[in-house]
Amino acid sequence: MMNLIKLRKQHGFQTINDIKNALILDTHRGFPLLDESKCELNCSECKEICPTEAIELNPLSLDLGKCIFCGECEKICKGNGIRFTSNYKIAATSRNNLIVSSQQSYEEYELKAIEIKEKIYKLFGRSLKLRQVSAGGCNGCEMELAATTNVNFDITRFGIDFVASPRHADGIVITGPITKNMASALLDAYKSIGEPKIVIAFGACAISGGIFYESDELDRSFIENHKVDLYIPGCPPHPLTFINALLKYLNI
Amino acid sequence: MNNNWLEIKNLEAIPLSEIPRLDINSFREQLVKKIKSGERLVQLFGNKDNDDVVLYGITANDDNSKLYLASCIFDNKKEYESLTQDVPAAHLFEREFYEQFDIKPLNHPWLKPLRKINAELYNFFKMEGEDVHEVGVGPIHAGIIEPGHFRFSCHGEKIYHLEIQLGFQHRGIEKLFRKNNPVYLLKLAESVSGDSVIAHASTFVRAVESLSNCNVSYNANLIRAIALELERIAVHLGDLSALSNDVAYLTGSSVFGALRTKVINTTMSLCGNRFGRGLINYGGVNYEIDDALKSKILNTINSLEEEVNLASEVLFSSASVLERFEKTGIVDKETAIQIGMVGPAARASGVSIDVRADHPSGAYQYFPVHKLTLNSGDVFARAYIRYVEIIQSIKIIREQLENLSKENIISSLGSLEPNKFVISLTEGWRGEVSYVILTDETGKIKKVKIKDPSFNNWFALALAVRGNDISDFPLCNKSFNLSYCGFDL
Ligand code: SF4
Ligand code: SF4
Asked: Between chains, do B191 and A210 touch, taking CB under 8 Å as contact?
């Protein structure tokens, strides 16, 4: 009994209180700042080294939906044309918004990345139940999604929770590049959710196929045929990225 | 032992031409003999060489750090007598070989699809009788976890048999490894199983390094080892949290969960990613541990040790927890050896194997790792071994932090030697991770064969739940915490 009390005391209070302004370690690779004017003439090394073809040149842009935040482009770019900041609020409501262009500041990006819809708040703002479907990938995304419910992040305090059955859900969170072997199960789960419902693509794999984009064992038709409401970039995305994206999207 | 197998060591690159080529009958006979004499099956896989299919076998003698290698060729032959009849540990390997090359292991007791899923073609075991029922779950499970299909044959609450059908995460990883872009391949290795980033990435790069005769600095090897131990601590803590949760001991669930966060954030301060992505590179590591970071890590693990000790003392002295943990999901030692289990799950069943001690590489060559075992083979043992391994890893990190130096952390990698074969073994937190790489005549990678420890251990879960109540399944499952994607590849 004494030990239990000691343990309780040692555990203390773990929850991040002000999650909208939570600090993150500055080693975290978040929003990238691009500056084409620092590019060396005819250098295309960042584009060549990128394992997921996330970089385009002339003009320079970086697709957060493809990026796995490996940092290799930053390392090879001695001219500082690409520099990752630790800013983690990088989710967006449209695929196009994920493409970062040269000179785009984080503030500019954040301002327009998530388009808030009043309707969403009215529908789900006080209670959003999500069904997660793991469709390939590496389980990294699953671990970070699961972490959003732990004592540190505690997403359920905002009325957001993960449920076991799609019948109980208002939306679906997809992780992984969607393998052929999971394509029909994903579709079944989606269809089992009542309308209206939202679709969230969590991680580079779900958004673009990630590191597996060239695999012939994938079936990405779901993403092509359905509207994705919220894109959460990362490999895996940080729990703070997910929670803040939802809070903003739901206007909480 | 009198046979034709080539004796090699972990990470010893050898010319392809030196690999003994036997006919299938002697290959089979000798392999069976080796396993019966106490060696362990590490790898058994096929590769297409020109137009012929070649089967490679690798066994290990864990007492003297030796590995043995041989191959046999199937020119037009479409079948052979299955090894599984005599070597149960070969059963999944042979199913994989059959699925990939259509060469049939005759009289294989359980020749079913591994990753090519077609529910209509898959004959699940059937049990008949009054009060007998089947429970099918998946591919989508109740929690935020990976997909798989589990079918239980039950009599009332009691599980008679559990059949596990995986393959839903199959992304064709080994095929993707043929791409000729080193950065891509490294990131792919990091993404085989996201909870074992360091284990997979370092096993892969070590194989590449040995193919290019690259000397990794002691300092870089130390950082790799420290990261690998942090990975072990983090996942073990997460597992203790999940196990607590499954027996409704919520304090334990929260406490261990919060401690895990501390550890993954330590990894994040090292390399910018909570799971160690971006740390490992060919020839060393991308990030150094400077004095400030070193004292930060020291502080974290010192307080962690105290906290884990207290939390574990409470966990393992709680009657209601022990009531659920003890004698649940038992795998005995003999079974564990027969089916070829590895890692902490094997050690919890009394099998004394640990790649860090048996086939040491990198920094582990310079300090001894004591192999920890327990005997009861139940959920309790698999939980408790995690606790003692956490404490052991904390000690390793503390000691090795002192050995860090200013030595460089990355050496340049030359080109790979042509026509070579290498096997790389690492003890990840889940057990033995192995990568085999074959190069072609230009030094290009032509084949990467990956084996995650889950491949060895999934069948153990099926055996562990036999005779248990179906309500204990989640607990048994978490006590193994196997990788779906690592298996599905
Ligand atoms: S950090 Fe992103 S953009 Fe840069 S190389 Fe890696 S994947 Fe490509
Ligand atoms: S996005 Fe990255 S972390 Fe997520 S499943 Fe894909 S490879 Fe794993």
From this structure: yes
Phi-psi domain of A55 (left: phi exceeds 0; alpha: psi -120 through 50; beta: other) = beta
pLDDT at residue B117, rounded to an integer: 78
Which residues are registered as beta bridge partners of B40? B60
Structure tokens at A31: 């929003």
Nearest chain A Cα to B188, which residue? A211
CA B131 / ligand 2 centre spacing (Å): 43
Atom 4 of ligand 1, nearest CA residue: A73
What is the reported pTM? Answer: 0.94
3-state secondary structure of A154: coil
Which residues of chain B have a CB within 8 Å of the CB of A217? 170-172
C-beta of A43 in contact with ligand 1 (< 6 A) = no
**pLDDT of amino acid A117:** 79
Q: Which residues of chain A have pLDDT under 50?
A: none
Contact A144 B139 (CB under 8 A): no
Q: Which two tokens mark A85?
A: 């900041």
pLDDT of B2 over the 80 cut? no
Where does the pLDDT of residue B120 fall: very low under 50, low under 70, confident under 90, or very high at 90 and above? low
The answer for residues whose C-beta is within 8 angstroms of residue B350's C-beta and 6 or more apart is B333, B336, B373, B374, B375, B377
What are the pLDDT digits (tens) for B311-323? 999 899 999 999 9
Rounded CA-CA distance B206/B228 in Å is 14
Nearest to B359 by CA among B13, B59, B65: B65
Which amino acid makes up residue B468? N
Nearest of B127, B101, B126 to residue B114 by alpha carbon: B101
Q: What pLDDT, in 10s, does the model give residues B273-286? A: 999 999 999 999 99
Determine the straight-line distance between the first and last CA of chain B, rounded to whole angstroms: 35
User: Is B117 in Cβ contact with A134 (below 8 Å)?
Assistant: no
Structure ipTM: 0.92
- Work out the minimum CA distance from A164 to partner chain B, whole angstroms: 4
pLDDT in tens, B28-39: 999 999 999 999
